[in-house]
Amino acid sequence: MTKMKAGWKKILFLGGFLLTIVLASGCYWRYQSLPAQMARLETAVNKHQWTVVEKMIPRFANGRKISKGSYQLFEAQLATKKAKQVFMQQLTKPTAYQIENKMSWFKPKKFLPQARYLSWSASDVPSKTTIYISGQNQLWQLSNQSHQTQQAYFPGQYQLDLTINNQCYGKVTQHRQVNLNQHNYQLKLTPDYFINQPDFQNHRLADVLTYYQSLNQSINQQLDFSHLEGVTAKDRAEVARVFAMLKPNLKAYQQQFQELAMNVDSLKIDGGQEPQVTFDLYIDLKQAVQVIAKTDKTTFELTNDDRQNATVTMQYSTDEKQWLIQTLDFETYEQAPSEWMHKRQVRLKQPNQANWQANQQQET
C-alpha cells in the first residue's frame, strides 16, 4: 500500500511537472508569437521606448547595420498617429519588412526593414550641382549621372527640406514629402525642373530689368555704354556703335518704363552646358526721339509707345557665369499681361527714365 501511494505521488509529481512545462512553454510561445511581438513593438513605439525598438529592429534586411541617423529619421517620421498605424501595417508586408524567426515557436522575432534609398539624377544639366538635406548634414555633388545616397531609410513617409544649388540655374529650396513605403525615391533634375521654379523665373525677369535700368543710365551718362549690364561685350559695343551712328542726327532721346512682366507659360529651354531660355515679355516702354533732318536741318519728333511685347532669348555664359540677353525681338504679336494665366511681374515705385539732349552734351 505504501509503495502504491508512493507510485501515485511520483506520477502526480511528474504530471504536475510536465503540466507546468507545457503551461510555461505555452506562455513563452504566446509571448514570442508574432501578434504578441508586434503588440510589444507597437507599445514601445507609442511610449517612445526606442531602446526596446532598436533591439526588435536590429538591422536592415540586407544585413546592413542601422545607423543612429537612420533610427533618428525613423523616429521623426512616426510623429503622428496615422504614421504609426501605417508602420504597424507595413510590418507584415514582405516588400517592407522581413521577419526573422517568423516560424519559430521560441526564438524572439526580429523585424528587419528593407533598406530604402534616395537617389538623384542630373540629365542635360551643367555640372556642379549640390543637394543638401536640412537636418541630416548630408551634401552631394552631382554631375550628369545618377547618385544614390549612402543614408539608408526605413520604409515610410518622410518630410525633407532640400536645398538644390546649380551654378547655372541657381538655388532651389523645397519641402518635399517623400514616399519610401514601397520603393526607393528618385528626384530627376532636368532643365525643365529648374525653369519651372519661381526663383529662376524671377531672376531672369530681374536680369531684363537690370539691362533696361543700365541702358537708361548709359543714355543719361552721355551715351556711355561701357557699363551696360546683361549683354556680352560684343553686344555692348554694338549698342554703342548704333548710337554713335545716330548721334549726329539726334537732337534729343528719351525713354522710360515702369513695369515688366514675364509669361511663365511661354518659357522654353534648350539645355546643355550653355543653355538658352526664351520667354514672352511685356514692358511699358515709351520712347521719344527728336531727329534733325539732313536736308533743311529742321527737327521733327518720333514717338513710340507700342514697343511693349517682345520675345526674349537669354543664354548662360560659362565664361562670365551669368545669364546674358541674346535678343529682344519686338517683332511679335501684341499680348496683354492681364490675359496671361501665370506670370512674374515687377513694377517700380516710379518710372525709370533716360533723357539725352545734344545741347546738354555741348554745355558739358
Description:
With 364 residues, the protein is of the alpha+beta class. It is 32% helix and 34% strand. The chain has nine helices and 16 strands. The chain has helices at residues 2-32, 34-46, 50-56, 68-76, 81-90, 191-195, 198-220, 233-246, 358-363, and strands at residues 97-100, 110-113, 118-122, 129-133, 138-142, 146-148, 157-166, 170-179, 185-189, 250-270, 276-283, 286-292, 299-304, 309-317, 322-329, 343-357. The strands form four sheets. Strands 10, 11, 12, 13, 14, 15 and 16 form a seven-stranded antiparallel sheet that branches. The chain has a four-stranded antiparallel sheet with strand order 5-4-7-8, with no helix packed on it. Mean pLDDT is 83; it is low at 15-31.
Q: Nearest-angstrom radius of gyration? A: 36 Å
Helical amount:
25-40%
Q: List the secondary-structure elements in sequence, H or E.
A: HHHHHEEEEEEEEEHHHEEEEEEEH
What's the overall geometry? rod-shaped
Largest sheet: 7 strands, antiparallel
List the uncertain runs.
15-31
Q: Tally of extended strands? A: 16
The N- and C-terminal alpha carbons lie at a distance of 142 Å
Strand content: 25-35%
Helix/strand/pairing category: alpha+beta
Provide a count of the helices.
Answer: 9
Give the overall average pLDDT.
Answer: 83
